[in-house]
Amino acid sequence: MKTTLKYIILFAVIFISSDLFAQNIHFVQNGVIEFEKRSNMYAIIKKKINKDNETYMNDAFDQYKKNNPQFKAAKSTLSFTKDKSLYKWQTVEETMNNNWLSTDVLADLKNTIATNFDLQSSTTQKSVYEDTYLVKDSIRKINWKITDETREIAGYECRRANAIIMDSVYVVAYYSNQIAVSGGPESFTGLPGMILGLALPHENVTWFATKVTEIAVPEKDLTAPTKGKPTDNKGLKAILLSAMKNWGEYAHPIYKAFSL
């Protein structure tokens, strides 16, 4: 009888402690997240070397490695409330030596994206070479597969999720349900919490949060971009395919980058 009573008391203590812990969990719904995008330029450039260009590309690549770091870095911010977010780029970024090999569409991509979670819509200001487009459409639907893997990012415990987008682009995301907003960097959303880490492993590019600041975000800081030629995702796809129809094998990675 004493043993039974002991276990009853033990289970009661565990239950009460768990309930109190759950009540004290704080969920962030407003703030600014600072991200660092890192592109592995050594890997990206190496993929561009083939039997048709290796004569001059190998020498150029060796010279590039002597004068440039392996990773190109850029800073961005995501301001958010429970209803909206605005993702944009900072003007100051890591300095690279001026070299034609350091130019890459995905590494240099600088989209500005306003997302309305209530309406499930987004407005993206996208620079495509000399043109700027304003792409208004619904939020991309991503079929995420949530795993048991976890890691800490910017002080938050995050869970891993995987997905395939655009038929062939493998995506790894780490989200925290302590930030109760289904957002993330670039156009990646749809998880039960904020995405604080994002990787496109086959494209050699990552976005990871370096700092999360919980502050009230005024409505003016979430204003969607307005400059650009208006279109939607279908219209942009047609524009890109038409412009690159004679580019052969070089078109595919460029099309993927501009479609993110």
Task: Assess the beta-strand content as a share of residues.
Answer: 35-45%
Overall strand count: 12
Q: CA-to-CA gap between the ends?
A: 65 Å
* Order of secondary-structure elements: HEHHEEEEEEEEEEEHH
Name the quaternary structure: single chain
Radius of gyration: 22 Å
SS-based structural class?
alpha+beta
Which stretches are low in confidence, meaning pLDDT under 50 for 5 or more residues running? 5-23
Largest sheet: 12 strands, mixed
Number of helices: 5
If you average the pLDDT, what whole number results?
89
Fraction of residues in helices? 10-25%
Can you put this structure into words, describing what you see?
This protein is α+β, with helices and mostly antiparallel strands. Helix content is 24%, strand content 36%. It contains five helices and twelve strands. Strands 7-8-9-10-11-1-2-3-4-5-6-12 form a twelve-stranded mixed beta sheet. Helix 4 (233-243) runs antiparallel to helix 5 (251-259). The longest helix is centred in the N-terminal third of the chain and has 22 residues, at 2-23. The radius of gyration is 22 Å and the shape is globular.
